Amino acid sequence: MDAHLKETRVDGGLAYDGHFLQVHRDSVTLPNGNVTGREYIKHPGAVVILPVLDDGSILLERQFRYPLDRVFIELPAGKIDPGEDPLACAKRELLEETGYSASDWRFVCTIHNAIAYSDEHLDIYLARGLTAGEAQLDDGEFIETITAPLAEMLDWVRTGKITDVKTIIGAFWMEKIASGTWQPG
Predict the structure, then answer these.
(1) Is the distance from CB of 153 to CB of 171 less than 8 angstroms?
(2) Sign of the torsion angle spanned by Cα atoms 48, 53, 56, 62
(3) What angle do CA 90, 135, 178 make, to 5 degrees?
(4) What are the φ/ψ torsions at residue 83 (nearest 5 degrees)?
(5) Which residues are bridge partners to 127 per DSSP?
(6) Strand 101-111 relative to strand 8-17: parallel, antiparallel, unpaired?
(7) How many CA atoms lie within 13 A of 106 on its CB side?
(8) pTM for this one?
(9) Given this model, what pLDDT does residue 120 score?
């Protein structure tokens, strides 16, 4: 059906094998028969959690991100370990990063956040019925948790205080869920 758009791998391989990411460099045949190169990052996948407290406010994180040399406001998220179920990962990451656990989990959607240069996908989960506990941060992980009403979070998106794409998409989903326009899953 999409053959007129498909690119076909000719050859290629690993260009860089890092601790977290792998960069591949392939030769591909374009739909017009020409051959070109493609470089892309292989990623194991991740989860994003939309943690809604009983009062409707959103549990967020503040974390320094080295590539951009600044602190970002984000939703809790984390990498899926090999063989790990995405929902189990979401539960683990919420507990590790924030100390919270949730009694009600709903799958929202899957997003692909960097389709031009990565195969990364993020599975988004809505978490309700939150219970506070103690964070279990990984060694070398420094995270501050904050809460904000959804309206304030959306204003932070509008004004550029929140620029992280997974958090922006999560905010828009929460707005639709809160209004009853969209339902998770």
Answers:
(1) yes
(2) negative
(3) 50
(4) 80, 0
(5) 51, 105
(6) unpaired
(7) 14
(8) 0.94
(9) 96
**β-sheet bridge partners, residue 179:** none
**Sign of the four-CA dihedral 21, 26, 29, 30:** positive
The encoded tokens of residue 80 equal 């899926």
- Angle at the Cα of 164 from the Cα atoms of 156 and 54, rounded to 5 degrees: 60
Q: Where are the domains of the chain?
A: 8-42, 46-179
Q: Which residues pair with 48 in a beta bridge?
A: 77, 124
Domain with residues 46-179, CATH architecture: Alpha-Beta Complex (3.90)
36 within 8 A of 44, measured Cβ to Cβ: no
Q: How many angstroms separate the CA atoms of 11 and 123, rounded?
A: 30
pLDDT tens digits for the chain (185 residues)?
Answer: 898 999 999 999 999 999 888 999 999 999 999 999 999 999 999 999 999 999 999 999 999 999 999 999 999 999 999 999 999 999 999 999 999 999 999 999 999 999 999 999 999 999 999 999 999 998 899 999 999 999 999 999 999 999 999 999 999 999 999 999 999 97
CB 124 within 8 A of CB 47: yes
